[in-house]
Write a structure and sequence with these properties.
8-stranded mixed sheet, 5-stranded mixed sheet, 6 helices, binds 2-oxoadipic acid, binds magnesium ion
Amino acid sequence: MPLDKNTLEQLAAHVDDAERERREIVKLTDAHPQLTLDEAYDIQYLLRGRRLARGERLAGLKMGLTAFAKMKQMGVETPIYGFMTDRGAHGDDAEIRCSELIHPKIEPEIAFITRRELKGTDCTTEQALDAVESVLMAVEVIDSRFKDFKFDLPSVVADNTSAARHVVGKASRSPQGLDLAALSVTVRKNGQAVAQGTGDAVLGHPAASLAMLVKLLAKRGESLPAGSFVMTGGITEAVAVAPGDSISVVYEHLGTLNMRFV
Ligand code: OOG
Ligand code: MG
């Protein structure tokens, strides 16, 4: 039986409160095994509504589980999307407070800003890439509200795909002449290289992830407006961080993004 509007609202409040109170919860399907993926997106949109109503501003959209390494790490097999707000936004050399987070992990990502509207269930990688205005270095700090990062697809979608913080480089460049599939990324934690990958880890090409986002939005009757900021998904497995850790992510052709966890 589909969940009624009241239950969806309650579940949105439940994940929202867990995040604000930095409290682990169990995956939503334990109490609601019938929760569908569509209903999970309904909950995510209600969560977004609650946060925007509190004065947060939408900063962009993110894709998740677009890399095989990530799917394997999380035991989940379908790409998903979520949102970011200005509350989670940081720039290079960010200092990120672990006291506000449950069990943070970082993911190196390629981000895009689009220059024209993208829409439709048949959006191709070429169309998506052609709509990219600029490419940016980004690191997502994920922090599942679920105990031990254990979830299934509907639960993680309702929990806004574990989104918590995002660090974005100031410099951006045009995708022209940049082979994003071959672009290599290395994560250094406290000076040691701990993860490495190339852009093709993300669905073969980061622009394929952008196209996938457009197709997922189309299923809900939405398009991606010009000027959208999109994070295309972790290239490597996520790396756990704790107070005292410093992270540098080196992006071939783009630069280095640094952050400290306190
Ligand atoms: C879900 C979010 C994954 C990514 O970039 O793959 C994600 C999770 O692993 O907790 O953001
Ligand atoms: Mg991510």
